[in-house]
Amino acid sequence: MRIKTPTILKIHTANSYDYLDHNSKVKTMIYIAFCFLFLITSCFSGTLQAQPLYEREEGYYTVVDEDDNTILKTGRLLSPGNKYLNQDNELYEITEISEDTAHAEFVEEIELAGQQIEEENQHDPLEDNFVKRDVVITVQDEDNEGPVGIYHSHGAESFVPSEGEESIEEGGGILEVGESMANSIEEENVPVIWSQETHVPHDAGAYDRSRRTVEEIMQENPSALIDVHRDAAPREEYKAEIEGEEGVQVLLVIGQQQQNIQETEEYAQRLKATADEMHPNLVKGILYAEGNYNQDMHPRNILAEIGSQETTREGAEESAELFGSVVVEELNGGNGDDDLNGAAGGLINGGGAGNGGGIMGRIGSSILWIIGAVVLGGIIFVAINAGSFDDIKRKLSQFVSTEFANYLGPLFKTKNKNESNSDQKTDAKDKDHNSQNLDDRVEDDDS
């Protein structure tokens, strides 16, 4: 005998199925929401992602010319198209990378920016004095009254001979090197902002973290910025005779992926030209490497490699002190012109290549992602509360028809009113014209 299910039980069972079906839909919607939010988060982090790690994790490259002569050893990442201006101002371009060897070709011998200006000013000693003095006054009055900013994107870097290890999370010897440079600049009565932030860990996010430090320094309208590092290369690579004694050389690094590259290049050349006159052999060259190095934020932002992990910290400190005097001399117009100094305006809004086109570019991009996330979140909220896709379509259709009608209604009314007035005027004009024609015909008949 078949037992009939009571009506109330049938209703309860149906409701249970409906409940389970609705619950399943909600879970599905929530799952989809999390997937979309994960996607948005991934895209958003991609927009503000850390700059790539521009240094090798271990080892170094040996750059050789066409005759296999070594011209540079560096731990910086290199790729075809990078360039190197050596101590004799000979420019090489890297054409091929083969494991740890970078092959380069000679391009040309460069006349540095500072050298060109100095030659132009050597027509007459008296005239030369007046020209240089005029440059100093112009520079100091307009652009170079701000402090020099010194910071360390890799503040854990240290020196093995002095500290026993290559990196110290709490702050490596590179901080003391930066302090020596800061003291040297302050002794010349130039204000300094020196950040002791380490920006650890030494990973792909270090330059993004140091970018925030640069943003803080930028609030003080700095005249120049120096990102102080040490290279990962053999000791001999940075060893040279400086001031009659064995010293540690400095390598200037320019990031090729940024819109200020021309101004940064001119600044680096002027620093080298000034150093070549003040302290020969101090600056070993200029490397045009992969990266941005936050140089898109200021045309006078330069990365300085002072020695390597195999040089002594004390030697690096002495070279940093000498380089500080070079920075001051360049600011005072030692090898300067007005063009680069004038480039310091509009530092925040720079757009273009590299790291998102400056701060405003990054902010704008972030806002777009936030708006997109909010819109998507609203759609997901409607989806979860709607219960079915038909309800979603109905609600969206209702929103569009209602809200847009309310917003655009007055516009259409105005337009229709104007069109109606125009039609009325046209009809009236036609009536007048027809009436005039009728009067003319009557007059002709009378005649």
**Biggest pleated-sheet summary:** 11 strands, mixed
| Class per helix and strand makeup | alpha/beta
What overall geometry do the principal axes of the alpha carbons give? elongated
**Separation of termini?**
113 Å
CATH topology of the largest domain: Aminopeptidase
Residue fraction in strands: 15-25%
Give me the Rg, rounded. Answer: 35 Å
The name of the CATH architecture of the largest domain is 3-Layer(aba) Sandwich
CATH homologous superfamily descriptor of the largest domain: Zn-dependent exopeptidases
Total E-strand runs: 13
Order of helices and strands: HEEEEEHHEHHEHEEEEHEEHHHH
Assign a percent range to the helix content.
40-55%
Give me the side-by-side strand order of the main sheet: 2-1-5-4-3-12-11-13-8-6-7
Number of helices: 11
Into how many domains do the coordinates divide? 3
pLDDT averaged residue by residue: 76
Can you walk through the features of this model?
Residues 416-440 have a biased composition (Basic and acidic residues). The protein is of the alpha/beta class and 447 residues long. The protein folds into 3 domains: 17-50 and 363-386; 61-354, Zn-dependent exopeptidases (Aminopeptidase); 392-447. It is built from 11 helices and 13 strands. The strands form 2 sheets. An 11-stranded mixed β-sheet has the order 2-1-5-4-3-12-11-13-8-6-7, sandwiched between helices. A hairpin with a 2-residue loop joins strand 9 (239-242) and strand 10 (245-248). The longest helix has 58 residues, at 389-446. The radius of gyration is 35 Å and the shape is elongated. The N and C termini lie far apart (113 Å). Residues 3-14, 42-50, 123-142, 336-365 and 411-415 have low confidence and may be disordered.
